[in-house]
């Protein structure tokens, strides 16, 4: 029997992966695995317990939109992972604060993050740690960038590349979704904050004029690299003093044109339009049509690549440092690379919060966790991390 009692809200792919990691590496005494659908919670708990080899997860039916119910559920716990849908994140964060329990989540929505950071004074006063924007990117990607910045004496320019892709792409989409499709479109809809010539700028997500290509080692090859918010809050924390900062998402060629066609048609819009005698929301139509065509199947095998390139000066000379993490679908557990890197990152943070190594307040991942400590945790879970330092 372990030491800490955890909660995971949301028993989907990422919540299940987080619960499994807590069961085997979190010194867990038990894990409440909660979902609005009791059957989903039950199936996820059974899978976690089978993989972990002990009755670690207890399924709980929970309406995460009911703040009072969430608060009551969390009060006896040592740390919580919020893997619920984006629209519920703000309320769940408040409930954890009311319960006095540290919480991390998988949200990367700029508006949601602003609301969470506004709770910093209250969180400090109540002695509660809150770490938003965990998961693969931001989250793991933020910690990888923080580590890469330590490799040079004077870092000046940083580009972060992030990919979550099927190993065997199938036309016409050449993409498989390993998280909720609404999260994908939400990511694509927001403008992107970068730094150029030492000044903050805003660029359009998926902007063809800002899209480049990069060639990665097999099996990926040539990929599109377009503007993205995968960098999270780094642009205003560790990267704030850099000359250049860019965060880019990687996809197989053609993805940018496809998504821009949908956007240009107005299918990203959330304002209703009239179609005959009916009123419909374009984005909901796109979600309904696109999701089943790019959904992950049992045959899907995926790969995650997070790559950081930093240029600057080291030992007085122009120097370039590259740190690249790769993770692939695990045949033993059946967990995808995205589940491993997303759910497991949140579980690592939850364990650190339960242990008390992350203090009260609202902290972005890149400031909450020492870079070397996170690299050690990721390597221990089988992620391959390569780094090079060479003359620029």
Keywords:
392 residues; Dihydrodipicolinate Reductase, domain 2; 13 helices; 2 domains; Rossmann fold
* % residues in beta strands: 25-35%
* CATH architecture assignment of the largest domain: 2-Layer Sandwich
Shape field: globular
Q: Number of DSSP helices?
A: 13
N→C terminal distance: 52 Å
Evaluate the radius of gyration.
20 Å
CATH superfamily of the largest domain: Dihydrodipicolinate Reductase, domain 2
CATH classification class of the largest domain: Alpha Beta
What is the number of E strands?
Answer: 18
Give the averaged pLDDT, no decimals.
95
Instruction: State the strand order across the main sheet.
Output: 3-2-1-4-5-6-17
Please tell me the total number of domains. 2
Low-confidence stretches: none
- Give a quick account of the main beta sheet: strands, pairing sense, barrel closure: 7 strands, parallel
**SSE-based structural type:** alpha/beta
Look up the CATH topology of the largest domain. Dihydrodipicolinate Reductase, domain 2
Portion of residues in helices? 25-40%
């Amino acid at each position: 029997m372990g030491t800490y009692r955890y909660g995971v809200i949301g028993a989907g792919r990422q919540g299940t992966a987080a619960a499994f990691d807590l069961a085997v590496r979190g010194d867990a005494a038990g894990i409440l695995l909660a979902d609005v659908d009791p059957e989903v919670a039950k199936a996820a708990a059974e899978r976690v317990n089978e993989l972990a080899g002990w009755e670690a997860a207890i399924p709980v039916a929970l309406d995460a939109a009911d703040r009072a119910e969430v608060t009551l559920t969390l009060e006896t716990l040592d740390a919580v992972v919020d893997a619920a849908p984006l629209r519920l994140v703000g309320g769940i964060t408040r409930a954890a604060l009311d319960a006095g329990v540290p919480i991390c989540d998988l949200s990367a929505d700029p508006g949601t993050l602003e609301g969470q950071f506004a709770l910093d004074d209250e969180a400090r006063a109540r002695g509660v740690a809150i770490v938003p924007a965990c998961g693969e990117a931001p989250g793991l990607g933020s910690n990888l960038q923080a580590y890469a910045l330590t490799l040079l004496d004077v870092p000046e320019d940083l580009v972060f590349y992030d990919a979550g892709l099927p190993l065997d792409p199938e036309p016409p989409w050449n993409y498989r979704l390993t998280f909720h499709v609404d999260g994908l479109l939400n990511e694509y809809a927001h403008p992107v904050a970068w730094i150029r010539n030492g000044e903050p700028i805003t660029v359009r997500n998926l902007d063809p004029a800002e899209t480049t290509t990069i060639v990665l080692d097999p099996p990926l090859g040539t990929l599109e690299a377009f503007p993205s918010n995968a960098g999270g809050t780094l642009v205003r924390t560790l990267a704030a003093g850099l000359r250049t900062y860019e965060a880019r998402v990687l996809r197989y060629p053609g993805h940018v044109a496809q998504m821009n066609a949908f956007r240009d048609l107005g299918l990203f819009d959330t304002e209703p339009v009239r179609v005959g005698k009916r009123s419909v929301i374009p984005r909901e139509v796109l979600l309904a049509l696109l999701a089943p065509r790019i959904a992950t199947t049992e045959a899907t095998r995926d790969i995650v690549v997070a790559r950081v390139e930093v240029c600057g000066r080291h030992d007085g000379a122009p120097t370039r440092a590259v740190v690249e993490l790769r993770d692939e679908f695990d045949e033993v557990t059946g967990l995808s690379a995205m589940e491993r890197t997303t759910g497991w990152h949140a579980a690592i943070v939850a364990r650190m919060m339960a242990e008390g190594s992350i203090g009260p307040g609202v902290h972005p991942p890149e400031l909450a966790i020492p870079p070397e400590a996170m690299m050690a945790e990721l390597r221990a879970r089988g992620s391959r991390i390569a780094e090079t330092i060479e003359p620029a």
